[in-house]
Amino acid sequence: MSRRGPLGLGGSLIILVAWQIVGATGVLGPAVAAPVEILAGIVSDGPEFYGRHLPVTVGSAAVGYLWGNVASICCAAAVLLVPAIEKLVLQIGIASACVPLIAIAPILAACFNGPVTAAIMAAVSVFFTTLVGTISGLRQADPAGADLVRAYGGGRYLILRKVQVRYALPSILTAMKIAVPAAILGTVIGEFMGQEVGLGAALVAAQQSSDVVRTWGITLVSTVLAAAGFGLVAVVERLTTPWAATDYGVRA
User: Fold this and answer.
1) Count of domains forming the chain
2) What global pTM score does this model have?
3) Which among 11, 68, 175, 187 would be 20 to 30 A from 205, CA to CA?
């Protein structure tokens, strides 16, 4: 663990220095902006610009992330309670993961307004990841606990609630953590479709006006937003499943 930190930091610094050199010299053309220039552009745009667009994207992503995860967890629970529907549920999940987001965004935009389209795109983006993680976690439950519940007359629902959900929490939260960047990406793509506010809409406007620095700045802010969401879910994961962190520490 002690060697990974410095190695990771050193690798990041090398990438940043190389990026700065490439952007400053223009060897790859004007489309690559230097990190220093990008940060200066973000500061220049400031709260007035990002205060208008960022809350819209965060709101749509949060709504889509919430409902996408709720739907996937409910579907996973249904699979455990009614095994006959597993194939159908997994096929729906695979379809949601395989269909290109940019292909379904125009269809959704024709049916809903901008924020709703972005939220649905976020929900579609997270569905499969959380579905697979939840099903896997629910099936890792201790058989002895399930047998004990059966011995006291409990059925599938009681086993799910008393045993399987507890064992599945680490897997569910890990899947939800991984799904955060997907939710941000889905939201931004959803905002491409004729929306006037939001990071996706601002990104399209910057590209159309050939504002390279702002385009990179919006992309960087979107990346930081995804990383912040990832970190927030990671904190929730540690607080709500301390036994999982202990297990990982023992294995390590």
Assistant:
1) 1
2) 0.85
3) 68
